[in-house]
Known about the structure:
Blueprint: H1 37-46, H2 50-71, H3 78-101, H4 109-112, H5 116-134, H6 149-161
Helix pairs in contact: 2-3, 2-5, 2-6, 3-5
Amino acid sequence: MSSSQVPLPYDMPQNTQSLLPIDTDTVIDINHNKIRDDYERLLLTQYQRPEYVAMGVLAAAHWDRLVATHTQNDRVPSITALTLITNNIAINQCYYSLQQIDSTLISPILNYFNTEQRLAIKDQAEEKLLAIIALSPFTIIFDPQPCQRFTLLAESMLQTTFISL
């Protein structure tokens, strides 16, 4: 993702109105890269470091998977629930630890879940996954290096998007 790919007006001054909705539950992805355009613009305007943009994209892909469990009718396997919850915890821990070093860094979670409906769906998905974990034999282990989780998320994303020739 680069600023040249983001649908305009990604770099509008903060006091002007955007042509794309930023506060609705409508998903707009004009450039079809599977990242909501309002969130994508935010990443590129808020973060001056490419690694923060990459982390925001990886977090969004994780949050999409998390939210998908909300409406999933099939039983969510315990290991999937555990992975999603531990990824969630690691993402939050990573942003928190980086904020201790870089006070300008702000976690994008509230920008991703930027409406009451999106936030409610996230909360309900987390509750559903926690209920599954509570009945499973697995134990949650907290990662001593939570930012390493982004490496695993990137590897996972590459494996699912790789096309064989």
